[in-house]
Amino acid sequence: MPSGKTVKLILYEVLQFAALIVPIFVIMEQFARVLPDSGGQSVTTYWLVVASSIAYVTSVTLLVWVPLKYMTLKKRRFIAEISQWRPTALVYLILCTFPCFAILIASSKVQENRESQCYHFPELPISMVLFSLICVDIIERIRSRRLLGKSDNEESDLDMSSPVLTHLQQVTTVSDKLHTERGQNGLPPNQTVSRNGSISIAQQALPDSPSRLNLSTRSPSVSYFYASSSRPLTYSGPLRFLWKKDGRSEVFVETFMFWLDTVEMVRVAGVSSVFCSAWVFPVYILAFLSCLRMIITPHSSLLSLAGVALQDVPFFIIRVVLIAVFGSVTPLLFPLKNLLVSLTYIYFTWLTKLKIFKRQSMF
């Protein structure tokens, strides 16, 4: 009987392999339907395209995918040391996503001179490509978590923002200053010089006496800041289930939100007026460039810069141009989102570091 880790490993690998081959077969089958209609070829063309897709999948599986998975599972040194990017995601983008986008562009090009209405891909194959991409990303993110029972880092109760002690600073008191001055004059802190020049005991108390504590104790200056702290709060009652959460389900939500902008850009490319024009080239090229963010690990500091440089800035430019040329092919919400994200990233990351923005008098 295989262990739970073995079953989980087999499940993940089967799902990733299915996400690799299924989009290619679906896209190539749709492309095979386009070729006979555009050039008047026989059914032989259709089966040649299908056979080429089978040969491609077999070649990349045996030559690239299986060796990569073997080295990853065996934790070879040059693979195990990689921590800032994901080799599996990079190989998947090169072997699956890139060919699928290239076939979509080629299907538009072969129909450029057709007299009849331009045939564009139905929504299902394109959704299959994007859904497989999202599934691979989810598997890479959730691979280290268990599937049964509680999550490894699950918090049973809702986290609330509370003050967190960050810094303790000792402040010198008046009595402390007097002790220091007396020490510099060569006298012990508890002795003073009388008028006739003799040394008298100013104060002599036990170490634990209140008077000594008053002289030696320093008042700490404590600074706080409000941030999310892992301080669980206990909730009871019939509505306690409303405060339950699990990090594994949040991975699915975060991943779909991560790819939402790219999905909308690919949807714009599926519009007939855009698909049968030259604008389909920059749309699919920029959509693929935004997919390169998948290579970076989710918690890397480079992900924010990659999101602005590879997605928000290029998407804002191409969406403004598409709206000017074709009209309302995309909602205004998305270019506004791209503009706002780009401006806020530039401001909070770079402009606030300038001297003019460090003045205390500004809000």
UniProtKB/TrEMBL annotation:
InterPro entries noted in UniProt: Uncharacterised_FAM23-like_TM
Q: Transmembrane ranges?
A: 9-26, 46-68, 89-107, 119-139, 274-296, 316-336
UniProt superkingdom: Eukaryota
Alphabetically list the UniProt keywords.
Membrane, Transmembrane, Transmembrane helix
Q: What is this protein called?
A: Transmembrane protein 236
Organism the protein comes from: Kryptolebias marmoratus (Mangrove killifish)
